[in-house]
Amino acid sequence: MDFPSPNNNKQPKKAPFRFSLWWMYAIIFLFLGGIFYFDNNQVSKNVSYSDFERYIEQDHGITKIVVFTDKKVAEGYLTDSLARAMFKNSSFEAGKGVDAIVRTNLPSADKISEKIEQWRKNGEFTGEVEFEQSSQFGNLLWSILPFVLLLGVWFYIMRRMSGGAGGGGAGGGIFSVGKSKAMLFDKNNADKVTFSDVAGLSEAKTEIEEIVEFLKNPKRYTNLGGKIPKGALLVGPPGTGKTLLAKAVAGEADVPFFSMSGSDFVEMFVGVGASRVRDLFRQAKEKAPCIVFIDEIDAVGRARGRNAGMGANDERENTLNQLLTEMDGFGTNSGVIILAATNRADILDKALMRAGRFDRQIYVDLPDLPDRVEIFKVHLRKIKTAADLDVELLARQTPGFSGADIANVCNEAALIAARHNKESVDTEDFNAAVDRIIGGLEKRNKILTDDEKKSIAVHEAGHATVSWHIRYGNPLVKVTIVPRGKALGAAWYMPEERQIVPSQVLLDDICSLLGGRAAEEVFLGHVSTGAANDLERVTKQAYAMVVYYGMSDKIPNLSYYDSTGQANMFTNPYSNERAQVIDQEVSRIIAEQYERAKTILREYATGHAELANTLITKEVIYTADVERIFGPRPWTSRTDELFGHKELPTPPPIDESEPSDNQHQES
After folding, report:
1. Do the bridges between strand 99-105 and strand 73-78 make them parallel or antiparallel, or are there none, so unpaired?
2. Hey, which of 36, 53, 176, 393 has its CA 20 to 30 A from 335?
3. Please, are residues 431 and 651 in contact by the beta-carbon 8 Å criterion?
4. Distance between CA 394 and CA 666 in Å, rounded?
5. Is residue 238 reached through a cis peptide bond, with omega within 30 degrees of 0 on the bond before it?
6. DSSP-based three-state secondary structure for 619
7. d(Cα 622, Cα 385) in Å, to the nearest integer?
8. 158-200, pLDDT tens digit by residue?
């Protein structure tokens, strides 16, 4: 027995009527086809009335006369012989069903009948005569139909451009160019990011969580007279998690969340940016309480009038003015909280940064050692890792890495393990991933001469020897003379993380960087181009010591650094005489540290030679090899104090023969 379907009684819904552009094409085609058809069924010519009479009285060439009495117009149908004579250069052919017509204006519509009777009596005309009224509707139709078609096409295109029927919805077209492009997220969004997905950043999360808590439980704060912050600005280097924090807010808050990029306000049309700002805040007010997130706000919030003489963008400034007014102007935006992110807070307009617009500035810095451990744990959730993987050791080997860099390390390690058909990702894969990200892929197929290999080994052994024997030298991790990326050799160190850097640390760093060039001069008797990157970093660091940090004996306690970013790029804030003193001090610092490096190398020449020979033989050496030659370092780093001294692993290098163009700098 068949049971009726529960939907059998429901009538199918008729599709709503929608105008299609193909209909317009069909109408135009029929119109043009009709004109083409009628034009090809007859050929006509306008003649004077005297010629019209001559064709009848002398040529006897008209077989039919049609008189339009309301227009005082007569048409005469020609015989084939007269038609061939008159239309000899046209497409007229006798017997093809094409009528040849001559058309004339009558001097008097009343006397044409008498004239036709006279022609009949004289035997000059024996054909048919018709008296007609011209179709007013047809004439009107043929006169206005082209304009109607043009108007219809224009109306349809405008509806398409304004996001009307068939226009793809709001936000498309020229009439919606001033509409906001913000994406709306709500609590039902499938892809949610919560605060548990954000590792580290404990202080920043505390600030953001308080804003979310205010939206969830406002009475807890308003009962004491507090007011919700109007805005929070997330500031920090790229890849530190500013946008991720905003996504977590969108996932945690039970209020609408608008997300928009600062560049979405910028448009080539005048007034569009300000219009989009108004539309964004109009939507936000309708859904208040809500959060508006503007990513990379420096695209629209750059300080006004900074380059007034160099073609300043007035449209961008108008957009910023509208944004300032909407955030804290004469009107009220109660219940609308603004979140913004940038890594260039120094160039933002001061009016945008003041309290009342952005009440809080949350600095999202590069993660330190404990934060990197937490970040590794978050990204390792979905990766099958070996049981003996030491996450703390991975965090120690990635100083200066941002959250995005750590995510890249974890993904790269998984790819390397899969390439070697492993069932889990182990420490060796992570070491290879760090090496690949920092220095690029190994290029073992690059041909080096014995002299080049020796020069590279002496250079890298010089770095290792000097850094091992100075107080603030960075602990060595690995030294290799295998080409990686664009570098022919590289040394990996584990720099100590400090909040305040003494001058001696900077001097030791310069001395360590000059160890390679000094080793070439001391042990080879000549220098090469291999120290170009070292010299660049040394020069910048020495210049910063003198000009920015005031660490010079001749120019003490002076800094020419402009943190506001408003300095004139064409002039220096010091005289030419002071510039000479700066050059002399930079040269003195570099020369002193270069001589210091040569002194250390001469003192430990035997160990350096053994280290260089080991590099030539093995191509890669680790901390254990250096410690075997020189003995343990007498200094303990702060990292060892936090986590205890752990020997860094010495796995065999993985052969990665794929080419890479990554620029490597020793770290």
Report:
1. antiparallel
2. 176
3. yes
4. 18
5. no
6. coil
7. 24
8. 665 554 443 333 444 544 555 666 677 665 665 677 777 787 7
